[in-house]
Amino acid sequence: MRRRDFLAGMTAAAGLAAVAGPATAGAATVRSGAAQTTARAAASYPPADSLRALAAHVNLRIGMAVSPFDIATTTPDYNGVLKSQFSTATPENAMKWDAVEPEQGVFDFTDADEIVNFAEQNGMLVRGHTLLWHNQIPAWVTTGVSNGTISASQLKEFAFQRIQTEVSRYRGRIWQWDVANEFFTDTDPSMINPQDFWIQNLGEGIIAEAYRLVHQVDPHALLFYNDYNIAGEDGTNAKHDAAFAFVQGLLEQGVPIDGVGNQGHQDTQYGFSGTFQQDLAHFASLGLKVAITEADVRTFVNANQIPTDSLAPSAQSYYYTQMLYAALEVPQVISFTFWDESDNPNVSWVPGTFPGEGAATLWDANLNPKPQYFAVQQMLNLAAHAAPHHVATAPF
Ligand code: G3I
User: Fold this and answer.
1) Residue to probe by mutation, ligand 1, list 69, 92, 339, 347, most atoms within 8 Å of CB
2) Which of 20, 26, 120, 302 lies 20 to 30 Å (CA to CA) from residue 132?
3) Closest CA to 222 of 93, 40, 88
4) What is the pLDDT of residues 289-331, one digit of tens each?
């Protein structure tokens, strides 16, 4: 059944999802506008009130960025939260070039293997991340390119050898590959970034070649283009329009691309995109699948990762539930992935990247669920269990 059928009862309550106060965490009791629902963790696994179980009712997979720390840590129980709440895993860093080939020709898939094995042992699909990106390129490559000891043809040879090696290692085990990541500029979002490492050194054609290579090596994987602010977050929709034209062009060239990922990194200091849902649907109109790939909502915090504004948690819940509502409304959205399990500055990427900001995730620095978690859980609860509405049926 399409997701829209479940959404009828949600519209009226949707706005409430964002402002529901923190429910009691113990019994996973959530207070919704419509009714108080005490969802006891079912004997079955994963718990019936988990994000993954609720989302499964509406054909949506809920994911998390995963690091070896998350798998190794059971006090507090990062490992337990990971396998009970999420049905997809994205290696946060373990599959990037600097992680898998730290020295030329010396491959190290230890962390990536651990994450893929953990995912498979816990019924989670894997989002491979990421093969062609200007960040986290091994130093032996960037140094060689900048001092001229690595020519353009060698750069392509090394990059494609790594892609061939990594993609064939996980052939048949990767649901979605983020083949290309973040090729548009922030300064002028209406175009491919001419200063991008790959564009500067090999030209824009390298992107299409990478997709063709990945599809040849693993025809099972869904191949995605992944970027941030391509659902109107830039305020002008220019980056969306550019990304749309870009993937449309790849499709017209017959390039094997199956989906677009909008990362979903939000900040309460900026407004929420008024075109978020329509932009997701616009990508879907190309016949593509869509994913929210790195959702988090940062805000200004003190040294203990506590928001400095008392309204922030409500605003953050609003941004999260607006992204989720849009994802639920667009049936071609097949997964919704959160980025980092907790606000702990050693776990979340935000404090180290945006000094003075943080509290971006669904769990606090001690891995306690926050109001944002319950707002997301409530919306999925409504999507999963909202009463069927009358559907127009042919008179008989
Ligand atoms: O592995 C080294 C370690 O050996 C060293 O001791 C340590 C100290 O500098 O650094 C470690 O590398 C860090 C790496 O994460 C692994 O933990 C890098 O410094 C750090 O910059 C890197 O940050 C990651 C960031 O991408 C890099 O651009 C974040 O964890 C990761 O969440 C973030 O994720 C990206 C997505 O891949 C693409 N979309 C944007 C998103 C946020 O930037």
Assistant:
1) 92
2) 120
3) 88
4) 999 999 999 999 999 999 999 999 999 999 999 999 999 999 9
